[in-house]
Amino acid sequence: MSAEATNPEARPEERPELRRRGRTRLDLRRLGRAALLGPTSRDRLPDAIGHVAEAHRAHHPDADLSVLRRAYLLAETSHRGQMRKSGEPYITHPLAVTLILAELGAETTTLTASLLHDTVEDTDVTLDQVREEFGQEVCFIVDGVTKVEKIDYGAAAEPETFRKMLVATGNDVRVMSIKLADRLHNMRTLGVMRPDKQARIAKVTRDVLIPLAERLGVQALKTELEDLVFAILHPEEYEHTRALIAAHAGDRDPLPAIADSVRAVLREAGIAAEVVVRPRHFVSVHRIALKRGELRGSDFGRLLVLVAENADCYGVLGELHTCFTPVVSEFKDFIASPKFNLYQSLHTAFATPEGYVAEVIVRTRQMHRVAEAGVVALGNPYTTPQPAESADCDEERVDPTRPGWLSRLLDWQQSAPDPDTFWNVLRSELAQDREITVFRADGGTLGLPAGGSCIDAAYAQYGEAAHGCIGARVNGRLTSLSSRLSDGDTVQLLLSHDATSGPSADWLEHARTPAARIAISSWLESHPDGAGPAAAAPRAPLSVVGARGGGGNAVADLPDATVRLAGCCTPVPPDAVEGFVVRGGAVTVHRVHCATVAQMRAVGRTPVAVHWRATADCRVTLLAESFGRPHLLADLTEAIAREGVEVVSATVEPPVEQRVRHSYTLQLPDAAGLPGLMRAMRDVPGVYDVSRA
Asked: Is-cis flag, bond preceding 574, omega within 30?
């Protein structure tokens, strides 16, 4: 994407600290001369993309390279005469981007689009030509990575370009794969730009591209981008970390010997595994130094154990924890619970007899490929690609591999027409690097950022209809909308049937997702008079009559003692109960699971045995939670009367946010009828909860 010039004073091959081990680098000057000379023969692959062909065949031995040849010829011809600021022919940039993707294992369609990714933006080639020559898939990807015209959008060109790119990524993740590789090459060659422009590009890379690389699982690109941004935005810390790594290079590294010990243990256990030492990249070393202070030799790298099957991963883990001293706090199982970016591995650490702590990553080879290349390793995300003649370049398509966070992003960006709002909210969304999954009452799931509340869940499930949300049940318990959700929670959202209901301003304090915040803000702006529900007022104390009366049918094994039922748990037959002597010599009866029982035992109170008389009548206080509606009190009273139950007293609180709480003290002729009575009350339309007081 209009690649920045190469700095001849700081070429990548002269900066070994930024080079990933084992990765072949392009000789840009040699490729530039080859591009200027052009191919020598029409029937063979041009020499300039020999690196690409070699890397591609390593992952896809049967790949047809003829389409790459045609794409290269079109790109080289179109860019001929264009030069980078370093003086290199421009064709070296798409070649370098394509090589990065080829090394990650991208399939042929991605590499074809990568070679052509700047042609429509910087040359006279049109999308129609690309579609006619290379098909709809390549056309769609090239269009997705093409910038919008700055002459049309002005200062909003960069946010709108990212918006367009993200929408295209929602339909084909290969669009963002090319963008990430494009930015990596531009960051590698950023040295000759003005310092202020370097900082601006590095900040956008830090705030947007690196989080996207993390979420798409492309760790190989993410780690190098982090190091390049680190060098530009934090030069002092970068130089300090560089000095630490250089000093360590002269010392004896304990990790190879530890790796030999691990190999011996696994060999003796009969587990076929490859054990390698992986040096940490610059930012990782910097983070470890901040966390641990003084670094030891084993802190500069980690052990990577590669096996064939998932079961072997746990076999390796068992051997390591048996033969070495494990550091329990460092264990994480991302195989049973993968990260939301496809990442799977076992993480652990153990201490050696010499006092070193070695961190270990255990994964299968397939997991390793996905961990390094992420979505790039998935190849074509479509099971049945659309034929070129049946679709246009801007047709929306359904990607079965679209992650949940991307779906949320695509939803809320439609409600953020202002480029500044989109840009600011995008950065905020991408800064949330953890995700949770909660279950809906109907069996579906919702993906939310960590720390998301019931408000976020409401807007994720119902969109603008969530304006009428008045409460929620989390794991079966009634809770407030501000409650934070945890991974695995089940949430049931309660909506009002009142069309005039809406959110209150304090919802914004508890909303984490952009979709919720944008929807709430829009509603509040369109209702400046606060037509929504009034702020919740403190509830008046419940008027509970008869809850602390006599002992009812309870009899204590203490002669002549006065017995009374506790108001905190209102026990009734046939509840299991215990009694405790209180001031005045009376015995207060509690249900055995009442919190007061535990408190009494904790302070040394001796329980008194209590049993129920043979008579089955009892008195109990029930609370009914309901939506407000006409005739509700009459319907509830009728339901109670049909069960043959006497109403001793009833209290109805004023409505709060369309919710009403009723308190009934009831005399039951038979305690066994209590469950049926509560079911009958719950069946009354509008009642969503009935519980003991």
From this structure: yes
For the chain, the first-to-last Cα distance in angstroms comes to 67
The structure's pTM equals: 0.64
For residue 116, give the 3-state DSSP assignment. coil
Amino acid at 335: I
Element spanning 130, H or E: helix 127-134
Measured at the alpha carbon of residue 76, what is the angle toward residues 73 and 80, in degrees to the nearest 5?
140
Sign of CA dihedral 112, 118, 122, 127: positive
77-128 pLDDT, tens per residue? 998 888 887 678 888 899 999 999 999 999 999 999 999 999 988 888 899 9
Of 175-184, 398-407, 409-418, 676-685, which one has max mean pLDDT?
175-184
> Where does residue 183 rank: exposed (0-12), middle (13-18), buried (19+ CB within 10 A)?
buried
Residue 644, pLDDT above cutoff 70: yes
pLDDT of residue 543: 33
How many Å apart are CA 418 and CA 423, to the nearest integer?
Answer: 9
Rg of the chain, C-alpha, whole Å: 34
Whole-number Å distance between alpha carbons of 195 and 565: 78
Q: Where are the alpha helices (DSSP H) in 189-234?
A: 195-204, 210-215, 219-233
Using an 8 Å Cβ cutoff, are 90 and 83 in contact? Answer: yes
pLDDT tens digits, one per residue of 341-368: 778 999 999 998 888 899 999 999 999 9
- What's the token pair of residue 570? 């209102």
Which tokens is 61 given?
A: 């031995």
CA–CA gap between residue 142 and residue 97 (Å, rounded): 13
CA distance 120 to 147: 9
Phi, psi of 190 (to 5 degrees): -90, 0
The pLDDT value given to residue 402: 53
- 122 in catalytic set: yes
Do 143 and 370 meet the contact criterion of CB atoms below 8 Å apart? no
The residue from 4, 88, 122, 635 that is catalytic is 122
Alpha carbon distance 201, 548 (integer Å): 71
Of 525, 528, 404, 534, residue with least CA distance to 457: 404
Q: How far, in Å, CA of 164 to CA of 116, rounded?
A: 18
- How far apart, in whole angstroms, are the C-alpha atoms of residue 116 and residue 94? 7
Question: Sign of the CA dihedral 527, 529, 531, 534?
Answer: positive
Look-up: residue for tokens 């408190």?
A: 599
pLDDT greater than 60 at residue 652: yes
Pairing of the two strands 346-351 and 332-333: antiparallel
Question: If DSSP codes are grouped into helix, strand and coil, which group holds residue 445?
Answer: strand
Confidence class for position 593, pLDDT limits 50, 70, 90: confident
Structural element, H or E, at residue 169 = helix 157-171
In the set 121, 399, 498, 689, the catalytic residue is 121
What's phi and psi for 245, nearest 5 deg? Answer: -65, -40
C-alpha dist (Å) from residue 140 to 119, 394, 515, 673? 13, 7, 27, 67
Instruction: State the Cα–Cα distance between residues 510 and 517, nearest whole angstrom.
Output: 9
Q: What is the DSSP string of 600-643?
A: HHHTTPPPB-EEE-S---EEEEEEEEEE--TTHHHHHHHHHHHT
Burial 125-143 (b: 16+ CB within 10 A, else e): bebebbbebbbbbbbbbbb
- CA atoms of 210 and 376, how far apart (whole Å): 15
Res 326: pLDDT: 92
Q: How many percent of the chain have pLDDT more than 70? A: 80
